[in-house]
Amino acid sequence: MNSVGKYFSDIFYGIKSLWKGLMVTGYYFVHPGTIVTQQYPENRKELKMFDRFKGEVILQHDENNFHTCNGCGICQLNCPNGSLEIITDSVTNEDGKSERIIDKHIYHLSMCTFCGLCIKACPSNSLAWGQEFEHAVFNREALTKILNQPGSLIKKTPKEPKAPKPVVTDTVPTSNPAN
Amino acid sequence: MQEVEFSDILTAQEDGDYIVNIGPQHPSTHGVMRFVVSLKGEMLDYVVPHCGYIHRGIEKMCERMTYPQIIHLTDRMDYLSAHMNNEAVSILVEKALGVEVPERVKYIRTILSELQRIASHQLWWAAFGMDMGGLTCFFYGLRDREKILDIFEESFGSRLLHSFICPGGLMGDIHPNFQKRTKEFITYFRKKLPEYDQLLTGNIIFEQRTKGMGIMSKEDAISFGATGPTGRGSNFACDIRKKFPYSAYDKVDFKEILYTEGDSWARYKVRVDEMWESMKIIEQLIDNIPEGDYSTKMKPIIKLPEGEYSQRVETAKGDLGVFVVSKGEKYPYRMHFRTPNFSNLFVISQLCKGNKIADLIAISGSLDLVIPDIDR
Amino acid sequence: MPFNIYDFSGTTKAVDQFLYSTMSPTWAFVVELAIVGIIILLVYAVVGLYLVYAERKVCAFMQNRVGPNRVGKWGLIQTIADLIKLLMKELVVIRKADQLLFNIAPFILIIASFMAIAAIPFAKGLQAVDFNIGVFYMMAVSSIGVIGTLLAGWSSNSKYSLIGAIRSGAQVVSYELSVGLSLLAVVIFSGSMQLSVIIESQANGWWIFKGHIPAIIAFVMFLVASTAEINRGPFDLAEAESELTAGFHTEYSGIRFAFFFLGEYMNMFIVASLAATVFLGGWMPLHIGNLAGFNHVMDFIPPIVWYFGKTVFIIYVIMWFKWTFPRLRIDQLLTLEWKYLLPINLVNILVIAFIVLMGWYIK
Questions:
Q1: CB–CB of A131/A94 below 8 Å?
Q2: Which of C57, C64, C221, C315 to mutate to test the interface with A (most CBs of A within 10 A)?
């Protein structure tokens, strides 16, 4: 008799447990408000990445096309996989001294692993994260970027005392002109 | 259970065996993993796991990288426990140099590890449901994991491979919204976790497919080195957070989940219960993060003194050990990772003996394998 | 030509008379066959495609997604686009496959479901053939389909396919019993196997209400067993994508794969319409006893709407099962049939026979 009782209790327990599961999916079926899908290409206008989003490495330029990179090459040393390459040039400044400037700050996006060591190591805070994320291209060469804009110059701030070093990952977006 | 010598299994193949390759490209091996399976009808005769399809030589690559650079490679081993992997190397370097990190760093590291653990278990739950054929589980798991990834993205800028914990502290401070969003997530997930139980845990089909399947004895767990939830399902108390507390784990009160059955069901229950425990740990810490610096000042070039160092942490999959031989240079002379999945994987030939082919999927799902962690 | 949405028999008779009056009887017969064939083919294609769409939408809503929404308004022509894509894809030739059987297998599956559609009464007078053994015919024809599955698995010379096919064979053969026995319940109630007679017998109430508890048990049994018989989740062991990649149709590509896919959905439609016809009154409106006013209002809804409404409801329930439950293992599947469904069904048949004998059901 005990086994007969177990037979029927098994059936009822089974049906009850299945019904519980059906209730969960049934609830979501009749509540379309719980849909979490984002309509990606349509929501491009509203879609905003977080301020700290690691989209790509950029060299910050201000509105007058000045940057602060002096071509020291520390970012290149810190990069674990050779994504950054700096080609420097020397020019003679108004004092008649030879001075190092960057000719090309080359960034291989295809090799970058977004570890952030270059940005952390940069002594002049020239590098920052850009929020661009649509990197798909048809040609791999297009992923090699030259970070310094054409005609950009190094910003000269010799007179001013050096500002305390803000850490890039800690900045609010307004202080970050490239963002 | 019949004893199986592993060397016997490797040479077991005979002419006339009905050999089926599950993998390397198969939907439920969760990566490029290959099981050579011999079948007798539906029954499994033997299972031989073959790994190495995604070997990238991370340990060798580490020998040409400075310690801060190594961090970004550890992300790519067990990509579901990126924070814990980073933490392991960071703690090792700090201990070797004798650097004491601020309390704030310890608290944040612990919270991140636990959030990462929840996210990892959510993905495992999702994939386990999918292995069993309940595709809806997959979407529910990922839906809730998305909330954690959003928290991560806001603070660290990335969703999967963070490289956020570095030797000496953190790469930056947490976002001002971090605490608020984490608390919101906990309230949200406390409501959603019972749904998981209704959908899968209590389901009779699921119970019958997991209870009593793939029983691993405590002796097996110890001799194979199966750690983490896989080992704890067999009553093997191997939680590094309890045994050798690191970061802020000595300051929080939590339970080490142990089940004695050792079957797929026990492993399942350990992970579901661990999600509850992780939420408790986060709740204890999230309001008490001390003020302070997010990093100690480290030398620009970190050189470990000559010697051998090791550190263990508890990742979502189990016991991750890092071993470094240093010759006093800025690169490690030799680096070795003892990854939990590698040990957990090879139990499978033992567990599958005498079960059906459908159980192979259920059992390998219950071991929670991440293939890049096996191959490094 | 008389057209009445409530009764199609006038329309069909008029077409018949028109054809016989304009041409020789042989030609009229051929033309009639052609017309019926084309109509069924069209219904088959449209219903099949939109069931795929419906399944994708239903599962999407259950999983907090929106589902297909790119091709056409709400993605309505998504499946048509998919079909065109599948038509244009290469038919991969498997080198060591048994080519003849490999090519025939999808057609056997399609023909089996195609034949079953012929006997479905869509509305009053809208039934291609009305056999006096309709229920028996439907069961016999729908079990031909498993031969297609077995041949597909055997001939593609793949280990995954073979395991899937053999599983499917064991499964369909066992669940056929329960499907038959649960249909037998209503055959006992109505005293006929003819589908039109079964529907007429439900004019004053559907069998699921009139037959009370035993009929409800038979209905649930039918739902479970028929879900298993058509290889749908949670009983989709023949496909079992997490174990056998795609089971018996692993090696198929292009339109041959589409045939299997379409065949699976049409089988679901056939099973759902059989359940609607036998248990829920087919195209018969909902009538409650002597409530003349209520019955009159219900009569205003055309029979074809009633028929499709009931069928869609049952299809939804079958989809609901699939997207909630994990898959069973083969031994559990057979346990469920031989240990639970079959004994309960046998006892149920006995109870029904007794109830009919004593007249303890609502007449």
A1: no
A2: C64
Domain presence at residue C54: no
- What is the predicted pLDDT for the residue at B11? 55
What's the domain range around C238?
A: 93-358
The stretch B11-35 carries a mean pLDDT of: 76
Question: How close, in Å, is residue C200 to chain A by CA atoms?
Answer: 33
Q: Residue B355: phi, psi to the nearest 5?
A: -100, -175
Contacts of B18 (CB under 8 A, 6+ apart): B38, B39, B40, C159
Q: Are A72 and A160 in contact (CB under 8 A)?
A: no
Contact (CB<8Å) A116/B153:
no
Nearest CB to C64; choose among A18, A26, A34: A34
Strand A153-154 to strand A66-67: parallel, antiparallel, or no bridges (unpaired)?
parallel
Tokens at A73, concatenated: 């090459």
The CA distance from B192 to the nearest CA of chain C, in Å, is 14
SS3 assignment, position B20: strand
The encoded tokens of residue B18 equal: 């009905």
In this prediction, residue A171 carries a pLDDT of 42
Radius of gyration in angstroms for the set of CA atoms belonging to chain C, rounded to a whole number = 21
**Residue C57 is assigned to a structural domain of this protein:** no
Q: Does A111 touch chain B (CB under 8 A)?
A: no
Say if residues B332 and B62 touch (Cβ distance below 8 Å).
yes
Residues of chain A with pLDDT under 50: 162, 166, 168-179
Longest CA span, chain B: 68
Give ipTM to 2 decimals. Answer: 0.83
Per the domain annotation, does C309 fall within a domain? yes
| Residues C225 and C175 sit within 8 Å (Cβ to Cβ) | yes
Of A20, A54, A78, the CB nearest to B157: A54
User: What pLDDT, in 10s, does the model give residues B233-250?
Assistant: 888 888 888 888 888 888
Beta bridge partners of A82: none
pLDDT given for residue A170 in this prediction: 44
Is C159 in contact with B18 (CB distance < 8 Å)?
Answer: yes
Residue pLDDT, tens place only, B353-366: 888 888 888 888 88
Is the Cβ pair B198, A54 closer than 8 Å? no
Fold of B58-348: Cytochrome-c3 Hydrogenase; chain B (1.10.645)
Instruction: Answer whether B180's CB lies under 8 Å from B105's CB.
Output: no
Q: In angstroms, what CA-CA distances link A37 with C64, C68, C74?
A: 7, 12, 14
A25 and B CB contact within 8 Å:
yes
Most distant CA pair in chain A, distance? 108
Model-wide pTM > 0.80: yes
The minimum CA-CA distance between C4 and chain A, rounded to whole Å, is 36
Q: Considering only CB atoms, which chain A residues are within 8 Å of B68? A: 78, 117
> Domain for residue C200, yes or no?
yes
Number of domains in chain C: 1
Interface of C with A in 124-153 (CB under 8 A): none
* Domain edges within chain B: 58-348
Residues of C in contact with A22 (CB under 8 A): 320-321, 324
Tens-place pLDDT, residues A73-92: 888 888 888 888 888 887 77
Looking at chain A, the whole-number percentage of residues with pLDDT higher than 70 is: 86
What pLDDT digit, counting tens, does each position of B282-339 carry? 888 888 888 888 888 888 788 888 888 988 888 888 888 899 998 888 888 988 988 8
